[in-house]
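Retro notes (design track)

What went well: tokenization of the new backbones is finally stable.
What didn't: we kept losing track of which sequence belonged to which structure.
Fix going forward: every design gets posted as structure first, then sequence, in one message. First example under the new rule, 162 residues:
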């Protein structure tokens, strides 16, 4: 019998490849929106299409200004991976209601609000982004937030320790 990965492992393997397209100097993130075991869209963090990347402009403005991780987003050129995945669905005219988000990092508050608003029903992530409010918003919306463990290739319901 062929040893095939389960769906969560399969999509988490793919999202690791997607993040390699990121142009962000500070953090590379990949995202997939999946519905009925089919990939709807992918996204990675970086400057909007057609605009210069931070690396082309001499570095990350947020880093130069001394912002801590998770702060100063208004000074960042990049769109988040989740935002790019949502925008791709809009451009293609495809519904992402009831989709699952697979992401290399847990979503920030801004992305959490967008994902809740568009009707994403489950979030699976690998690494934790330090944003307690995002975790609380998902809990309030009743959206399962699951951390993927690459060693066991299993997901566990996630509750932030913050």
């Amino acid at each position: 019998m062929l040893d095939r990965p389960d769906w969560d492992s399969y999509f988490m393997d793919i999202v690791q490849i997607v993040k390699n397209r990121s142009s962000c100097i500070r953090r590379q993130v990949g995202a997939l929106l999946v519905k009925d075991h089919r990939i709807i869209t992918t996204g990675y963090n970086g400057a909007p299409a057609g605009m210069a990347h931070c690396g082309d402009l001499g570095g990350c403005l947020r880093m130069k200004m001394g912002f801590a991780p998770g702060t100063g987003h208004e000074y960042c050129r990049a769109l988040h991976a989740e935002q790019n995945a949502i925008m791709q669905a809009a451009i293609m005219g495809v519904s992402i209601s009831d989709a699952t988000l697979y992401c290399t990092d847990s979503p920030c508050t801004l992305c959490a609000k967008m994902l809740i608003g568009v009707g994403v029903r489950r979030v699976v992530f690998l690494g934790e982004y330090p944003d307690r409010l995002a975790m609380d918003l998902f809990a309030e919306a009743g959206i399962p937030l699951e951390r993927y463990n690459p060693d066991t290739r299993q997901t566990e319901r996630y509750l932030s320790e913050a």
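Added context from the reviewer: The chain has a mean pLDDT of 93.
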